[in-house]
Structures are given as structure tokens and as C-alpha cells.
Amino acid sequence: MSDEHDHGSDDGDSEADGESHHEPERETFSHDPVGHAEVRAGMTVGELADQYGNAGVGAADLHEAVDVTESMFDDDVTVFFGLAGAMVPTGMRRIVADLIREGHIDVLVTTGANLTHDAIEAIGGKHHHGEVHAEGKTEREHDETLRDEGVDRIYNVYLPQEFFADFESHLREEVFPVLEEECEEEGAVSIQRLTEELGRANAAVNERDDVDEGPGIAAAAYENDVPIYCPAVQDSVLGLQAWMYSQTGAFTLDALADMTPLTDIAFHAEEAGAFVVGGGVPKNFTLQTMLVAPDAYDYAVQLTMDPKQTGGLSGATLDEARSWGKLEKDADNVSVYADATITFPLVVAAALDRLEN
Amino acid sequence: MSDEHDHGSDDGDSEADGESHHEPERETFSHDPVGHAEVRAGMTVGELADQYGNAGVGAADLHEAVDVTESMFDDDVTVFFGLAGAMVPTGMRRIVADLIREGHIDVLVTTGANLTHDAIEAIGGKHHHGEVHAEGKTEREHDETLRDEGVDRIYNVYLPQEFFADFESHLREEVFPVLEEECEEEGAVSIQRLTEELGRANAAVNERDDVDEGPGIAAAAYENDVPIYCPAVQDSVLGLQAWMYSQTGAFTLDALADMTPLTDIAFHAEEAGAFVVGGGVPKNFTLQTMLVAPDAYDYAVQLTMDPKQTGGLSGATLDEARSWGKLEKDADNVSVYADATITFPLVVAAALDRLEN
Amino acid sequence: MSDEHDHGSDDGDSEADGESHHEPERETFSHDPVGHAEVRAGMTVGELADQYGNAGVGAADLHEAVDVTESMFDDDVTVFFGLAGAMVPTGMRRIVADLIREGHIDVLVTTGANLTHDAIEAIGGKHHHGEVHAEGKTEREHDETLRDEGVDRIYNVYLPQEFFADFESHLREEVFPVLEEECEEEGAVSIQRLTEELGRANAAVNERDDVDEGPGIAAAAYENDVPIYCPAVQDSVLGLQAWMYSQTGAFTLDALADMTPLTDIAFHAEEAGAFVVGGGVPKNFTLQTMLVAPDAYDYAVQLTMDPKQTGGLSGATLDEARSWGKLEKDADNVSVYADATITFPLVVAAALDRLEN
Amino acid sequence: MSDEHDHGSDDGDSEADGESHHEPERETFSHDPVGHAEVRAGMTVGELADQYGNAGVGAADLHEAVDVTESMFDDDVTVFFGLAGAMVPTGMRRIVADLIREGHIDVLVTTGANLTHDAIEAIGGKHHHGEVHAEGKTEREHDETLRDEGVDRIYNVYLPQEFFADFESHLREEVFPVLEEECEEEGAVSIQRLTEELGRANAAVNERDDVDEGPGIAAAAYENDVPIYCPAVQDSVLGLQAWMYSQTGAFTLDALADMTPLTDIAFHAEEAGAFVVGGGVPKNFTLQTMLVAPDAYDYAVQLTMDPKQTGGLSGATLDEARSWGKLEKDADNVSVYADATITFPLVVAAALDRLEN
Q1: Which of B7-16, B174-183, B299-308, D153-162 is predicted with the least confidence, judged by mean pLDDT?
Q2: Shortest CB distance from A356 goes to which of B42, B124, B126?
Q3: Which end of chain D, N or C, is more open, meaning fewer C-beta atoms within 10 Å of its C-beta?
Q4: Sequence ranges of the domains in chain C
Q5: Sheet holding C128-129, edge to edge
Q6: Which family, according to the similarity comment (chains A, B, C, D) (predicted)?
């Protein structure tokens, strides 16, 4: 057998007597034993996050994410929050709105899709749990039936299409006219102005119509002076609606105008944190914001399911972002590679728990 | 614009007055609105799991997994637990041992690697947190240094190799001799007999040497008459050690003997549940057990990160297992596709919480 | 043993005599035996694709993708090509440019990042193979060194930052001034106008400076009247440059203007095909284009590594798009879930092979 | 704007004149420009692999895999081939058999499932292409129907269950009796002895019954004196059948016996290469083989879809294996993270192409 390494020596005597052996000098690691996670009934999410700290791989990453998030939620840190993917249709809307209201988010970068679904719920529409395919139908036939019945499917969440008609009315009555007037006077409005007015309208209609579901993310942002940036707004039903309305009047959107105030915020941030859920444009745009600031992010948390070896930006590690100057050299950053609908509520709950204690 | 679907009609009047519209008849879904997860400081894991039930995709799967696990932990259900992957080195050891002691696991199917690491910790060895690569070294150079320094790396967990020497002594002194005698009398022993004796020895040494870390999984199984099956034991350091010892005496292992008692347990189970963490042999062997029983699993939970379109068994859906007769037609089954070091503690904590309330 | 299914009957006699048994009636599948892929030295890519057709899972999907692509490249089909991810830095630039020149792409939707990198190569910059971390450095330290040395890393591809200075000059001298004049006269220009002028300038400079590398994608599009749409242009260095330039003059971009001509093309397409590499905005925007057309895509191919159960759009199945009316009910569509830098050249090579024979 | 990095300087003059700039000294990378893949109709797979060498990420990995495989197929290298996953049902059987016959595989480590399916095809059974769910059925209902109709599903490949009855007869008539006799004389037989006899019987029946499909992997191994190791044989229908037969006679399997000859081969190999398709036991057992040899693998290629951050062995990087002494410090190793049904035929075809030229 090999002398190379000690997976078992022929002479077992030296260990036979149970003596502890002195640990050889090693540069490869410091004493940091892996503990074991322990769970019990009634434990809090904060306690679970602590237990994760005893474990390895994903659990350890999540534990670290809670630490970094706790630091980020400190008052002196300007938090840039990137929200991608179908986070609103999948039930994450409330958590984001609450974070905004509690002052933990200073800037939001998201997709037109999330704003669309957020608005639909604000004005009374509802997404429904469904199946990827219903009883008695294949996935393909089921999608064909959905199409015939006017129901859109987002994985296993349904959205009846009449809600899109409501959304259109909402925009044409409550949102676009004011913006069109501004366009008549000043030229194109910024996309942020659109999201701001959308938030105002969502809040107003939600209250006026006494809608069960809360007013949501855009409303919370409006009411708390948190700007929402949506660089790819055309890539959504909101964008389609804006385009259709723009055909018949002065209303249009300026694609670049938002980058000035956003850069200002980044420039003036004492400390900056990036919290990114999912990948895509919200992630890249959030990180890119620091390219033209003298400082970069001091804190960064990324919750994503995208594997990192694909070369695409969404799975790119935050360390890679360091090469671009998007992260400070000594930034606290961590990525958790798991389904964000599981990790996001968990990280937030645990971080809030820490802040309270 | 298309008449095809209602992503916005030119005539907004009918919706303008805010009337609720009657919902058309739809077979594609029933009223089951997606709620939104809400989190707060101090919430329990059980409450978080409930909140997941409001959400979609992974969160909804996890919520369902908690439900099914709660059902499985009922006394009348015989639980077959499959544990793959590096669950012991990554901090999951305690949870599994506790589940065994609490009577929630009736049969354990696992890998030689997990038994190896479990034993090492029982007798006083420790895994350590480390980096995938240490300061000042590339990943490759770092692994070369680890090799030179006698440290094995499992992703970002380290294991100094002298612990393998301890493990060998442990086996040669406390475990193999008794088995060798049995072999001299009765021929080869079963693999389960090996795991049983290993558990007995782990418990004994752990107590005798007053080791800080608990006696672990195999010890708990031994003390609670829970058989451990390990079909691929040769594929591990435990298996290597067994082989080396077998060179010099009568000791050897029977590859098939365990399938008889395992089949008996399956045959006589009133209700059966399969809880599978990871994939690989433990998963397949656990599911396969039902192939020769008249009934199949009534409950099944799978926690895995393996994507399901690869064709490999690890990512195979539990529904696919239904075609093989491994699941009852009306089995409650769910898969959660996310890092198991995150989901496993979470699901167990929430299920225990439910059982208590 | 179970009577449930025939994984082995005790009575082997009936099969023992080697008689073929009549196949019972089954609705679950038709006779379509899986063959086996066979490979040999010197085989063409087209032949390899044929062999994939004998196999299952990913290989079968890829085979089907070749079929659909072949159909799409037919002259009567208007092809909308979505290109996401870091496809230019990872060596896919030439293939896309060639497809445009050969008339196989009618509309291109892509990211600002791809246009940025495409331009940089057109004017003489080069990406370099590198390591995720260089000898003697950790991944993090390496990224810090890259930062100090002015080199950006995209996974394992490097881009020295002086090329971004060249890119800026290129834009400020060759591209923006013309557009600024148009803005002075007509108000904001469309993003497509920007990409068009960029392509013209890339072609001109590439020739004038006798650059080794070809003029690239935007140049090919310009020379072949293929419009390039880039809804999220602000999310890129190109967008940053546009913004900086817009600070000092009349130049700005209209976020919505492109949706009119794009919708026209979709409206008038006899048959339409969507070929999407990666996910993100290019994918969604390409599929969304059909929402306001009476017809939808007849053909769709998606090459992506995004797993489909995450709920995010990038991994959404094309079948899901059917529920939204983005695909015709009888559309030929297929997704290949694998690294696109591997599958894209392969699918294109095989499809071109088919077209020739 | 930041002085930190050169994403654009306000002063464009220095680059405006088109001068080439001297490249600063950099340790981070050497001149190794990324080219661009180019494809054309009629190109060979070898040419495609060369083109991948110009590209990045997965394509570059695949190119390197071809290089390493070419080296491995050299006569002086002893190749240990690990085959996991459902590679036989998904059409990869022929390629492996051919590699064995051409002398490119010296040792095979695989799963009982692959041997089962390989034998079934050898004796006349066929797998069929199917759908994950058939027309008019949900995935779950479809699997229930499959179960009722006696058809097993492996993702989208079907296997009628009567073939399992044939397989049982085959084993009981052609394979087990000889082994039972050996057991009566010498005690348990090794698992390799079982696979050897299975291969002999597959070849014999395949010829005798004039079966269309080739005799397959085990037959090729038998005819070329290539030992097949299957440490987890119990975890398969083959294992179930062996167990059932063992109930009624002297036949049984020795779980450890194979490790002696396998270690001998490893010990005496001048140069050793590991080619691993998929993960699981075949991968680990193949790599583990070198733990007790003075040398380790000089070459290693891994084709897998398992992401590497899960902590499980299947996705573990080959670099990690270096820390365990399973790879030589200067081993040529590469992993390609993509669907193996796509990459495996491709890599083999290209490597064979290289060998011929």
C-alpha cells in the first residue's frame, strides 16, 4: 500500500492506545471545526440560521448571507436591491414591500414583469396555484387549454387573462394620462417616473376599491420615496402597454435618463450594499451601478439558482464582479445557490431576528 | 392587435367602472389563490414553513414536504430513510441521529462515506471548515498542498488524514475481530452486520474516551435497533478497510444477504414512507425495496439538487417511480429541488413543530 | 413476490423457449425503439446529429433541435434570434455573424453586453483565455490582481480594460455624433438606430484599420438590413457610454420606439421562428413579440442551461409560452438543456449540413 | 468618475488616433486570445472540436477533454472507465461496446442498472422512445397507466416489463447455474465473475437467437478480457434477481473480492487514465482505486451534469480528488458540465478522429 498518505497504516499500535496525536503544522486551514446542525420543534428561524453556521456548503453560505444582510440593514448602508425572476407571482411580494416600508431598501431595480404582476394584485387580480398540467391533460394540451380559456401559466402559477384587461384600464386611466401631460411639456419621461406614478396609482386604487391584497411593492416604494429602476421595461406587459399608449399621443419613455440620479445615489453612499435575488438585468444593472462611482459595494448578497459555470452573468460569482471594480476588495459578499423562494424569506426572517436582538 | 387573447382590449370601459367580472368557467384550475409569504423577527421555523405554503414553486414544494414528512413521522408508518451525498461532513449528522433516537426512522440506507465520516467523528476526529482554496494558493495548488500536508478536502470541508489512521485502528480493534470470528463459524457476514457492529463500537469508544462530539448515526441506529443498509460499502474508505482486513483472515462480506430482512420489513409495513436526501444508491435502493412488495410507498419526500432532465436516476422524479410500482398510485409525494443542507434541517424542524402542535 | 408487475415471474418456462411474445395493446407508446448512437473517426457533425436521433434525453432533444432549425432556415420563415449570455466573449460571434450574412436571421434581439464585446473585437480589441484564478493566487486574490492590473474577467475569459477606452473613443467619434444630430432634429432616436449606426461604424473601422478579427455581428446586421433590438441597452457598458454622452448634448434614446417596427415584422411574417440562445431579456422579448400578433411562432428552439423548475423565465419551458399564445398550438418547439457554447455550434453546423443535402 | 479602472476615460484623444497601445505588464494572463468558433456544412466532428478550442467555457472544456481522451487512448495508458446514469437506456451502449472492442477501455466500473439494460437489449428486448406523458394524460396519470400496462419509464424512455421476465429467464438459465456450482465448491463468487458470466451469456444468446441489436457492453468485455466491476450490484434488477436466486441454493456474491484484482491492475499500470461518465458509485469507485496505489491517475476526464457546489461527490471537481491523492499533481484533467448523451458521443468521435490523423 501507498506510503503517500495516511489512509491507514499497517502499524496500528501507535493509535491503539488512544493517545491524542499532536496536530502537524498546516497552512491549509485553521482550527474551525464543522459542528452539526441541530433542530427542534419550536425553534425560531434565527436559531435555524445559527445552526446552519455549524454546517457546510449551502447551509454555511446561507448563514453567512444572514450575517451580511444584517450588516446591510444597518442605517448607514445604502441598499440597492435587485429583484429578478417571477418573484411576485411566486409569493415574495409582501416581503419586499415590507422591507421597503421598514427602510431596509433604498433603491429597487426590477423587471417589468414583477411590476406588472405587482400592480395586478394591487388592483384586485389574483394569481392562483395550479398544476403544471391539470388532471386529464398533458403539459402541452393543458397549455393549449389554458390558452383557450384565457389563462396564462407561469410554471405552476396561473393568471387569468381578464386581469390583464384590468391592468390595461388601470394604466390608461390612472397612470399614463398624467405622464402624457408631462411629456407634452418636457419631452420623454424617465422610466422611474413611470414606476413612481404606477406605485401612486396602485396605492390609490388599492385603498379606494378596498382590495384584500396589499398595495404591494411599487406602492410601498412610492410612499417611501424609494426609486424603482426598470431598465428593460419594454420586455414586459407593462412595456407593451406603454408602447401601445405611446402610439396615440406624446407619451414616451427616455431610456437613459434614470442613470443620472442612480449614479448620484451610488456616488454619495457612505457604504453600499447590493442584495440581488435572481440574476438577469436587475442583478447586472445593480452591480454595474458601481462602475462609475469611486467606491464599490461593501456588502453583497446574491440568492440564485443559476449554476456558476455557464459563463452567463446570472451565475457569475460575486468574486468575478470584484475584477470589474464592482465590489470593494474587502467587501463582504456571499452567494447562496438555491431556490430563492426558499432562501429569500429565510434569510430575511433571520436577519430581522438578528436586528431585533 | 390580436383578438386571440385578453392581454388588453381596446375597449377599457367595461373594466373602467371597477365592476367585478364574473369568472368564466375553467377546468384548468380551481380557486386557490397564491398568497404571499410574510416574515417577521422571531417567527418559528414552523411558521416560516406555513408561509411557504402561500408561495409558489420551491417554497410551495417545501411546504408540502413538511406536510408529507409530518404524516410519515406518524407511528404507523415505517420510514425508510435514504441518505446520500456528503451529509455527514456537511453537518447533518446530528439531525439524522436524533431522528433515529426519536423513532422517526425505521430503516436507514446510506453510503460507506457517510458511515466513515460518522465513525471518525464518533471516535474523536473532526472535520474543519476551510476554503475551496486557501489564501495564496490556486484551487489546484491548494489541493496539492493539502495532499502534501495530509489533509483531504470535501468541497469546503477538510479532514486531516491522521483521522483515517484512527479510523483504521478503530475498525481493526473494535469492529473487525468479532466479525471475523462470525465468519469463521458461519461464512460471510452481511453488510448490515458490519454497520451494526460499527455502531456498537462507535458508541462504546465515544463514551469510553469521553469524546465531545456525539456518538452519531450508526451508534444511534445500533442503540435503537434500526438496521443500516449500505449496498455500495466497497465504494468508501470503510470498504477499503474491510477489504484490506479481509486479505488476512476469514472475514468477508456477503453482498446479497441484507435484501432478505429488508424485503421482510417492506412486506410487513402497514404504511411505508421513503425519505430520501440526495440521490445515488441510497435513493434507488430505498425505492427499489418496494419492487418486490405487494404494496408500495404511501409517502415519499425527496430533497435533492439534481435537475430532473438529465435522465440519471438521482434527478428522476418520484412520479417516474410510480410507473415502476415503487409508489402507490395515490401516494403523497413531493420533491424539493434545492441544496439539502438548507432544506433538510428546515423540513425536519418544521415537521417536528407540527407534530408537537 | 408481487403480482403487480412482471419484473420476473417464478415461472420462466414460457420465455425459456425463446418464443417471441405478442406485445400487449398499449396506449402509452408506439413502436419507436431507442437505437444506439454510433460514432467513428471522420464522421461529420450532420452524421453525429443523426446518431443523436437514435438516443434519448438531451441527445434526442438536440437531434430535434436540428430538425426544427433546418425548417426555420427555410426562406419562408422569418427568424427572430435571441442571443443572451456572454456569447460573444465565449467565441460564438462568428457563427451568429455568418448566419446573418447567409440570410438565416431576420431579426436579432440581444444584450448590450454582447454588442459591446462585439464592437470591441471589431475595432481591434481581443478577449483572452485565462484561468478562473491564475497560478499562485486564490480566486478572490486573483480578481483583486486583475482589478489592479486593469483586466476584467468573465468567468475564464479576460478583457484588458484599455479596450474599453478604445470602445469609448469609437463610440464618441464614429457613432454618437451622427445620432446626436438626428436627435437635435427629431428628438430621441430609437435603440435600433443606435445599434445600426454602431454596426456601420464597426464595419468601417474594421476595414479601415485592417483588423484581423472580422467586423462581427452588428456589422453583418447593418450590411444585411437586419435590425438589432436591445431593450435593456442601459444594462451594459454601451449603455453607460450612451448615458455619459447624453449628459452633454441632445442625444438620447427612446425606450419604446422599436416596438412598432418589430411588431410590424411579426405581424407580416408568413411563418415565424424563434431561435433563442440563453434566456433573459432576449428570450422573453423575442417570445413576447408574438403577443400582439394574430399568429404566433411556428418554430422555436431554445438552447439554455437554465433548469426549468426555478420559476424564472429563463428556464421556462416553451410549452409554458404556449399558454400565453406565444407559440402556435401545433408549433414545432424543442429546448436543449446544456451549455450553449457546445450545443449552438453543433446545432448550426448540423442544420447547415441538412440544408445542403 | 472613478480613476480606478479604464472603462472609459474622459480624454479620448490618446486612443482617437488609432495607435496601438503597448500592453502593460500583467501576470494575470498570457497572450492567448479567444478566437471564434466557425462552423460550416459538412465539417467533421473533429473539426468542430477544434473550433471549440477557439471558444470559452464549456466549449473550451470539451476541446480539452478531447485532447486528454486522445492521450488516454494511447496504448500505454490503462483506462479505467466509469459509467453511471442511465447511459444504456439512452442510447450510449454501442459507443461503450465499441471502445472496449477497440482496446480503449481496460477496466469498466458501472451500475447494475446499466448491466441490466445492456443484457435486455442483448437478448432481444428493446427500449422505446416515449413521452414523459402521453397524449391525454398527466405525467402522474400517465405513470399510473404505464404501471397498469406494465411499462416502466426512465424519463422519456420506456421499457415494457415483459422484458424483465425474459431477463430473469436468461439469468436463471444461462448465468446463475454455473455460478451456483462454483459457489458450491469455492464459496461466494465475486461480482466480477457474475458480470463476466453475464457477458458470456449475452454474447451466446445474442448470436443464437440472431438478435438485431448487438450483444452489447458486457459481451464485448467478456470477449476482450475486460473486467467489469459493479460494487453496488444489489441496487438494480440484476441484483434483485441475484438475491432471489440466492434464496434457494448456494449461490451468493462476495462484496469485497473484486478489490484485489482491481488494485493489482492499478498498481501495475504504467500510466492510468480515468474516464468517468456521470457520477455516483462508478465515479467514486474509479477514483478511489488509486488511493492504495503509489501512483495516481495521470489523465482524467469527467462528463457530468452535476453542478459542483452541492458538496456531493458526483459534482466534486477532479481538483478536489487531487487532495485525496487520487490524481497526480501534474495530471491532465478536465470536467465538462453538460448532458453526457450529447458530450460523450462528441468527445469520443473527435478523439477517434485525432487518433486516426
Answers
A1: B7-16
A2: B42
A3: C
A4: 42-76+270-357, 112-253
A5: C128-129, C157-160, C151-154
A6: Belongs to the deoxyhypusine synthase family.
